[in-house]
What does this fold into?
Amino acid sequence: MAHPLELSYNWRTPVLFATVGAFVCAAALIRARMSGWVPALILVLVLWVILVVLIYARTRAYLLADGSQLTVRRFRMFHTVEADELLAVNQVTTPNGASYVLITRGADGKLQRSLAPTALLKDGGATLFKWILARAPQAELDPGSQKTVERLQTQGLLP
It folds into this structure.
């Protein structure tokens, strides 16, 4: 049975440091009780919530290659891509590295785009392109994706 890929980073450490930092700032504000401490406390809490939500959103990255199906998730929804429906793969540069947009044609004939967040997953690029080369060789690769395939082949991660 296939398993989804693991995250490529440790999300617990940033959450721990952000929580400790927010707690220390909140404690200092509450203890000092200077004028304007309540809005400052609210700002600290809002910034902490924003940071934790952003980190949580990154932990939602998901990629599972199982036979002729590839399942991906970026934030909320799962998208399953059938190998024979995959038309093209386009590389997208993200702050964490390269991820890939998978372009398919749905049953209704419309083009659908799904993001494979490979930059956030261990061996994400290698797993994605191993699946594409084995199951969906008809997919058109953009120049960035072709360079990635060549690099992975040079490194011995792809046949």
Notes: The radius of gyration is 21 Å. The chain has a mean pLDDT of 88. Strands lie at 62-66, 69-73, 78-82, 86-94, 97-105, 111-116, 140-141. The helical segments are 12-32, 37-58, 124-135, 143-154.
